[in-house]
Amino acid sequence: MALEILFSNNAVSTLLAGITNAATALSVQAGKGALFAAPGANQIQKITLFKTDLSAVEVIHLVTRSGDTFSVVVRGQEGTTAVAWNAGDGVMDSATAAVFTGLSQLDRTETFTAKKTFSAGAAINGITEFGNGIGPGYLNNIGFASSVAANALTNALKGQDGADPSATNPVEVAFRSTTLATALPVVRKLTAAMSVVAPQGATLGFVINTIGTFTVTIASPAVVTLTNHGLVDGQMVRLATTGALPTGLAVLTDYFVKYLSTSTFNLAATLGGANINTSGSQSGVHTLTSGEVSYVYKYLVDDGATRALAICKQAVFDEALLHNTVAIGTGSDSNNVLYATAALSNCAVRLIGRELIQTGMAAVGDWPNAPTRREVWGPAMDKNTSVAAGFTRVTPNLCYLNTGSTPSLITGIRDTYVEIPSPSPNSKALIVWISARVGSANAIGARNTFAIIATNSAGTTVPYSGGYYMDVRAYEHSAVAAGTLLNRQDVFNTYITPVPGASLWISLQDDSGNQGTLYAAVVGYYD
Question: Model-level pTM greater than 0.70?
Answer without folding.
Answer: no
